[in-house]
């Protein structure tokens, strides 16, 4: 019986998180007192009526099949200093580094040495804004199901175009990389080299690592195909910094050029 009660409490919190509803909001939609939800989630009500459970499930906008397993809400089991469950719909999560705490960004604390912090960060953080929660959940959903797909053939002759797209779980494009092959520089090697034209990522999904995933797969294909050398021409700034993080290095022989590949001392890490 104890496991059944625990499962019901965990399931109700998971449904509230899925619907992004507070206890008060769910109670209003179900036409029930807020105290009923509080007592179910705390385990005080051990055997609620079927009609009560049905109203709560429907108010959360879902249907549960017999025997269906509902994944617990992220942060399930985390408790505040009063030993209470955190509201699951707020997406509570541990503060593992200072940048996880939004207040540190607003006050620019993340740029200060620890001894200069005005106060210690909390153990957990959460999002009060429903808009921010929706954005965070969308980013997590995209990242967890992200797929990379080559479009068309990847020829090995000068002038051939390579196109790689990143797709969300529903197939919507969220990023793209384009490159083309050209005759190699006479000082390097005979044959072709790949030239990275650009990498774009959808607004709202930048900074997650999608661009690095695209460049990682491009780098792996450069190695697999035998091309072995890739170049990119960029100006100083964020584009150059991004390519450095992806394994490029400055080509000292050319202005604003960056290069990677086995002929430039690059060792692929099998990314992608």
From TrEMBL:
Coiled coil: none annotated. This is N-acetyltransferase domain-containing protein. Residues 90-272 form the N-acetyltransferase domain. PROSITE patterns: GNAT (PS51186), HTH_CROC1 (PS50943). It holds the Pfam family Acetyltransf_7. GO terms for molecular function: acyltransferase activity, transferring groups other than amino-acyl groups; DNA binding. SMART domains: HTH_XRE. The lineage of its organism: Bacteria, Bacillati, Actinomycetota, Actinomycetes, Micromonosporales. InterPro entries: Acyl_CoA_acyltransferase, Cro/C1-type_HTH, GNAT_dom, Lambda_DNA-bd_dom_sf. It comes from the Bacteria.
